Amino acid sequence: EARFLAVGQVKPSEVPLYLAAFDVCALPLPFTEHFAYYASPLKLFEYMCVGKAILASELPAIAEVVQHEETALLCPPEDRDAFGAALTRLFEDAPLRARLGEAARARSADYTWAARAAHILSAARSLR
Asked: Could you say which DSSP state residue 72 is in?
């Protein structure tokens, strides 16, 4: 039984089909200044919206959005052993996958385009 499938790049229209089939969504990013402090990976928000368990690199930009053991499992960037152990844990623990996925989906409401626009407008109004 295959537990991991690498499919490469897919058409944007096919992304929802793949996300629906996943048990775990992974975002293993290296530690670079860009990823650590400036990037806001859309994949993370897509994963949150579909309510799947998330395994991601523990980078400041990611940790601002998801919290370890609450809405995702976070591992040190480029630590293959930690990433593998966390992935095994998620595959073996369906209740953990469900809990993390549900919490991530609930948290995703704070990151919709409408919610972000309201936050920005509120911040701008407070500058008056």
From this structure: B
